[in-house]
Design a protein that fits this description.
- It comes from Methylobacterium ajmalii.
- It is a multi-pass membrane protein.
- This is MFS transporter.
- By secondary structure, the protein is mostly helical.
- The chain has helices at residues 20-48, 50-53, 60-92, 94-113, 118-121, 124-154, 160-186, 190-195, 200-203, 205-216, 223-230, 238-245, 247-257, 261-277, 282-310, 312-335, 339-366, 374-399, 408-426; strands at 3-4, 452-453.
- It contains 19 helices and two strands.
- Strands 1-2 form a two-stranded antiparallel sheet.
- Helix 4 (94-113) runs antiparallel to helix 10 and helix 6 (124-154) crosses helix 18.
- The radius of gyration is 21 Å and the shape is globular.
- 57% of the residues are buried.
């Protein structure tokens, strides 16, 4: 099998080696799995454990809102981290950013496992928790943008969506690992779980960080970045160049990225609502999270392959609109404690339909920006949009009404955010046939730049 490359494409801007795209995809997959194992064990703990350990027990609803707020507070530092790490990645290379984010996430997660509780240290306990969570946010700010840029710039031109989808497949794997780590913990007697068992998943992060670092250490820099560097085309101030030349794309990605509300509502808010309000057993809901992400592992590359054939926009828009349609019946099923319907709708919502938008965005967003400002553009715009997703569980807890239908305002909130994301991508350019050197440029891609596999 051979790949025909557009002869008008400058040398060095397309993948230079047969094995590098696969190696870049593997490094992105493992790195994202490590990063988001750490990130999501916090989300699970924020839903099930932290309200009881790090906040006053006098008002359970206030404790739940405060715990969800600490989950969301990481998204405050994400834009700041995106500016700094985006600058480093666009000026000095993608690899440096990916190494730093991995080590910082591992350190901050291990730190959480060592923290004293509210009963041991009073108000100092949630303060230290917030500091650790802020460090996690800085790390996450550069991880997905760096991994997506790295994989995109190594990928064959006609399979960019497929290869970049491994970044999100890794994220799903991280969520699976995080949930699996909490399954035995959640099965422990309550007293033991709250005393010491909850710390185990956080300590285990050291192992997964070591694995991720070992895989990433030998990954070469991307051909596209090296070409920019050799020609001295890299931006001296990527952030300024970004907002001077591509601010409409920044806005598009910000609004599109709020589709992440679906993920945090599904993984954090509905877990808390089902277990703490409706009294569905913890293992039942945790098992649903695992199964949904197992399905997503298969669905994400399939959606990406479709996007390489028909385009990025229709696949993303289908995912966003489909989530808006499914969130209402899913929350209704939880409120009625209908386990069969919860599983059917939950697997369809998170495992299948959300995967259409979730698996495509690394390529869709990255292809909106030029190589010299790609990491900054992706990191800054996604992290601003993701901030809404990060605070979505806290917003949902505040919106939740009384009684069996108290979930309705939450469903409406999710539907509105999905609609905004879909409309944003309707206004975007289609890039699946655009050569690497033309991405982010105002000139439309030539028809000759369509690479195919013979």
């Amino acid at each position: 099998m051979t790949t025909r490359i557009d002869p008008s494409t400058p040398a060095g801007l397309e993948p230079s080696g047969v094995h590098e795209p696969k190696k870049a995809a593997l490094a992105s997959w493992i790195g994202s799995a490590v990063e988001y194992y750490d990130f999501f064990i916090y989300g699970t703990a924020a839903a099930l454990i932290f309200p009881k350990l790090f906040f006053s027990a006098e008002n359970p609803q206030a404790a739940a809102i405060a715990s969800f707020a600490t989950f969301g507070v990481a998204y405050i530092t994400r834009p700041l981290g995106a500016v700094v790490l985006g600058h480093i990645g666009d000026r000095f290379g993608r690899k440096k950013v990916l190494t730093f984010t991995l080590l910082l996430m591992g350190f901050s997660t291990f730190m959480i496992g060592c923290l004293p509780t509210y009963g041991q240290a009073g108000i100092l306990a949630p303060i230290l928790l917030v500091i650790a969570r802020l460090l996690q946010g800085i790390s996450a700010a550069g991880e997905q943008a760096g991994a997506s840029s790295m994989t995109l710039e190594h990928a064959p031109p006609h399979r960019r969506a497929f290869f970049t989808s491994f970044t999100l497949s890794g994220t799903q794997a991280g969520l699976i690992l995080a949930t699996l780590a909490f399954l035995p913990v959640s099965a422990m007697p309550e007293e033991q779980m709250l005393a010491w068992g909850w710390r185990i998943p956080f300590f285990l992060s050291l192992i997964v960080v070591a694995v991720g670092f070992w895989v990433r250490r030998t990954l070469p820099e991307t051909p596209a970045f090296e070409e920019e560097k050799d020609r001295h085309h890299e931006a001296s101030a990527p952030v300024l160049a970004l907002f001077r030349t591509q601010w409409p794309d920044v806005l598009r990605v910000i609004f599109a990225a709020i589709v992440s509300v679906v993920s945090t509502i599904f993984a954090v808010y509905t877990l808390s609502y089902a277990v703490n309000v409706v009294k569905i057993p913890r293992p039942t809901m945790l098992t649903l999270l695992i199964l949904a992400n197992v399905i997503a592992l298969a669905a994400i590359p399939l959606w990406a392959m479709l996007a390489d054939r028909i385009g990025r926009r229709p696949v993303f828009i289908f995912g966003a609109v489909g989530c808006a349609v499914l969130i209402y019946p899913y929350l209704w099923a939880i409120s009625r404690a209908d386990i069969t319907l919860i599983y059917v709708l939950g697997l369809l919502l998170s495992g299948v339909v959300y995967s259409a938008a979730n698996g495509i965005w690394p390529c869709l967003y990255a292809e909106m920006f030029e190589t010299r400002i790609r990491l900054s553009g992706m990191a800054i715009s996604t992290q601003i949009g993701f901030a809404i997703g990060g605070f979505a569980p806290s917003i949902a807890a505040a919106l939740q009404g009384q009684g069996q239908d108290g979930w309705v305002p939450v469903a409406i909130f999710v539907m509105i955010t999905c609609a905004i994301a879909a409309v944003s991508i309707v206004t975007a350019r289609e890039t699946y046939r655009t050569p690497m050197h033309a991405l982010g440029k105002r000139v439309s891609a030539p028809a000759a730049g369509r690479a195919r596999t013979a």
